[in-house]
Design a protein that fits this description.
The chain is of the alpha+beta class and about 160 residues long. The protein has a five-stranded mixed β-sheet, with helices on both faces. The relative contact order is 0.15. Strand 3 and strand 4 form a beta hairpin. It has four helices and five strands. Helices cover about 35% and strands about 25% of the residues.
Length: about 160
């Protein structure tokens, strides 16, 4: 249940600076650096092309508390659109107050609006809080032993 004072709204181009600040905090928490210009470019591409997905800025009592990104693709496996929770980050001081759940409720509503038939997310093996939250909304681990392999195909 979300506390009073939590606002979750779809992000716009004018939110990119705040979103990139939050993204940098998220990456730093996981031990990764963030090239700020790459973050700006990623958010600009997403926000300029709604077919790719969308992002939300979550605030608590007016302060930026976190962000959430939905990426969308056509998945042959599901014979339709698959959503991917690309990033979900809540600043430590705002955790366990319903911020992430409020964002996920907005994401699920957007998935329904778009006709998304499946939703996926990656969670670190030690992130019990995230796993519990995702289970609350109905996400479950794959039952097979598939691995996700990734290769960067360009320098951009």
């Amino acid at each position: 249940m979300a506390e009073a004072g939590i606002e979750c709204r779809q992000a716009a181009l004018e939110d990119i600076s705040v979103l990139v600040d939050l993204m940098a905090e998220f990456y730093a928490e996981s031990g990764y650096g963030l090239e700020r210009l790459a973050g700006v470019a990623a958010f600009a591409a997403l926000l300029r092309d709604p077919a790719r997905g969308c992002a939300w800025l979550m605030c608590c009592e007016g302060a930026p508390a976190g962000y959430l990104v939905l990426s969308v693709r056509h998945a042959m496996e599901h014979a339709g659109l698959e959503g991917y929770v690309d990033d979900l980050f809540v600043r430590p001081g705002f955790r366990r107050r319903g911020v992430a759940r409020t964002g996920l409720d907005a994401l699920l509503a957007e998935c329904a609006r778009r006709g998304v038939v499946a939703l996926a997310v990656e969670v670190g093996p030690g992130n019990a809080a995230a796993k519990a939250l995702y289970r609350e909304i109905g996400l479950a681990p794959r039952e097979d032993e598939r691995e996700t392999l990734v290769m960067r195909v360009s320098g951009t």
